[in-house]
Amino acid sequence: MNRQVVYIKHQDIDDKKWSVCIDKADNSRIYANIWHLDRTAEVWDALVLGDYDYVMPLPVRSKYGLKYIYQPTFCQQLGIFPSPNKKIAELFYQALYKQLRYVEIQVNSSNPTLLNDNRFNFIPRKNLLLDLRYNYKSLARTYSTNTKRNISKANKYNLQYVQGIRLEDYLEFKETNLTGNTSAKNIEKLKSIIAYGQYKGIGEIFGVYSQENTLCAAVYFCRWKNRVIYLNAVSNQLGKDLRAMHFLLDNFIQNNAEHNLLLDFEGSMIPGVARFYEGFGAVSESYFQLKFNRLPLPLRWIKS
Question: What domains sit in the chain, N to C, each tagged with a CATH number?
Fold first, then answer.
């Protein structure tokens, strides 16, 4: 295998070879599929080793005439595929450093770090996973006391758990209950991701309706390999009051228990959100944000 890592521009990527590499990778992630990158990064190049033996997607933006790499929304882990050993990972990181001035990207949990090389900053991040191979009773025993209490409360409200919410209903519900700075552009990206997932049969929206038949919580789950990803969720105030998201997740876990699946919550660096996921027995998986900044001095502070 050629040991030189090559930078390939988007238009020159061999789609077929890329897809085979990602599909067969032991650390395959949905985010590295061409269709997902096209919807989240829009513009992306790649580093490739050999005949697509190893690949690394690079979401690209430009500012002040300088190209840099960033982490797109709805795209938790990228990095090198398949799982590299430390020598191969070092080849990719060195190529990245040689080709680019600024990089801030999250590599997947199977990618080694170079903690002894002070040119690179590897910042730990936390993902949360729940193994669904066990029966529901075993899984429910790992719930926290607070989670059990909230599920018990939710069960008193005659809530309805519904599989197959329409995309239009979900987006209307989400836009009505937006928190934070979710842009119209990101809503369009989300719409495209979900529409494709529904079309391909790898994604579905699950919801909870109140006793009065009002939608109060919903989640888009998508499956890739043995992972079911909690990719996007929304609740309104009624849903929070009725503990509807606790009800939804408990029902989802019941329906998928004893299957060879990992429920991937995509983690959170926000303590309260992480506690919510951990309350269902999810365990931590570490991955890293890779960052370096060698922009010219007048610009370095802008991206620090």
Answer: 5-125+287-303 (3.40.630.30), 133-260 (3.40.630.30)
